Amino acid sequence: MVSVIIPTYNRADTIKRSIESVLSQSYQDFEIIIIDDGSTDDTYRVVKEIRDTRICYIKGDKRMGANAARNIGVQRAKGEFIAFQDSDDIWRKDKLEKQMEVFAEKDDVSVVYSRYQRHYVNGETALVPNKSYSKEALQEKLMFTLAKLNVIGTPTMIVRKKCFSEHGKFDLELQRFQDWDVNIKFIQHYKYGFIDEVLVDAYVLSDGITNSVISEFDNVLFIVKKHQIFFEAQSTLDMHLERLYSIALREKRLVDLQKILGEKLFFRSIYLNSDKTVKRQESIRINYLFIKEWMNKEKNSYIVNHFLFKYPDNSIVLYGWGDIGKLFINVLTDENKKKIKFIIDQKSYVHTSEGYRIVSLEMMDGKELEGIECIIITAVAHEEEIRWNLEKNVSVPIVSAYEVIED
């Protein structure tokens, strides 16, 4: 049996067609659990007028959100399989039949989904996922595809109930992209089946979540932070960080971005954008201010010192003797200060400061780098140009202040 869960709120004008599209399925072994999330319209009356003993109607006293409603439905479900329908969408007549055939043929499959057709209020339509995503990308390579973007709509899914008991239900903190979140969890543990055709018609209403003012930025940010390890493993984390930073800069929400991501990921997002989607000078300024603030925090000195721990005395060169370079030296332990052989700066003469020789890149020769195992760029405002110049002249490892933090 399939338990079909329909969360609803004030959808008296559309829920009847949604329910009837389930009742008219060619596959008839199902129950329908309707979770009314505190509707104030005629939803109750419309549902009760549909005479079918397979319908279970649960009315909430107050709004909890669609994810909480779905979780209640999962908890109440009697079927081995869980399907989800939205109260403003329509299933194609053979949806359940075609999906249940996959489960019958492949007992190692735990989730089956399909493409769907999105209908907009202006009459336009869109295929989701569109035809640029091949069957291979949506099945054999689905884990990587999901690491890039959300391609599975909740109303297209049928899931073995055990998936929810073993790996958790819908996250109540998400107002959007709950399908992306739950499928990121499931794809790491279960095999998916994909039907390469439209089985659901989804209607984007003017007051629906998809068309609402609920921030896409906030919800994507939440998912990226929550599933950081997954995105990193699939080599897509930088793509998401770069995009989030661009949006945060445009919407003046950098403080929110830093608060949620944490210092390391926030700095990484800045670093990724230094020459790409944002104005270079603004990126450099924020980059500089952030690393300066980070270095001034006493608790972070451990991270810098830990990075230098693996190197012997007189084996490290610093490039940059500005504010960041001096802060870098100041946070080092006495033992680690001995590991700095000399400092490279833009000055055209050799001099000393705080016991260190400071030399320009032009005045260096091969002997200067004998025994050097690492060059650390502390001139963060010009890191890319410095790296380019160094790589033409030296062959030793070059790291940025950002990479010291990342380590």
Question: Quick gist of this model?
Answer:
With 407 residues, the chain is of the alpha/beta class. It has 19 helices and 15 strands.
Description:
42% of the residues lie in helices and 20% in strands. The strands form two sheets. Strands 1, 2, 3, 4, 5, 6, 7, 8 and 9 form a nine-stranded mixed sheet that branches. The protein is α/β, with parallel strands linked by helices and 407 residues long. The radius of gyration is 28 Å and the shape is elongated. The mean pLDDT is 88. 36% of the residues are buried.
Number of strands: 15
> Count the helices. How many?
19
Mean pLDDT: 88
Q: Which secondary-structure class do the elements indicate?
A: alpha/beta
Low-confidence stretches: none
Biggest pleated-sheet summary: 9 strands, mixed
Percent range of helical residues: 40-55%
Q: Shape from CA axes?
A: elongated
Q: What distance separates the N and C termini?
A: 51 Å
- Residue share in β-strands: 15-25%
The gyration radius over C-alpha positions equals 28 Å
Summary tags:
six-stranded mixed sheet; alpha/beta; nine-stranded mixed sheet; about 400 residues; 15 strands; 19 helices
Secondary structure layout plus pairing:
Blueprint: E1 2-8, H1 15-23, E2 30-36, H2 43-48, E3 55-59, H3 66-76, E4 81-84, E5 90-91, H4 95-105, E6 109-120, E7 125-128, H5 135-138, H6 142-148, E8 158-160, H7 161-167, H8 178-187, E9 191-204, H9 216-226, H10 228-233, H11 237-250, H12 254-261, H13 263-273, H14 280-296, H15 301-308, E10 316-319, H16 323-330, H17 334-337, E11 340-345, E12 351-353, E13 356-360, E14 374-377, H18 383-393, E15 398-400, H19 401-406
Parallel strand pairs: 1-2, 1-4, 2-3, 6-9, 10-11, 10-14, 11-13, 14-15
Antiparallel strand pairs: 4-8, 5-9, 6-7, 6-8, 12-13
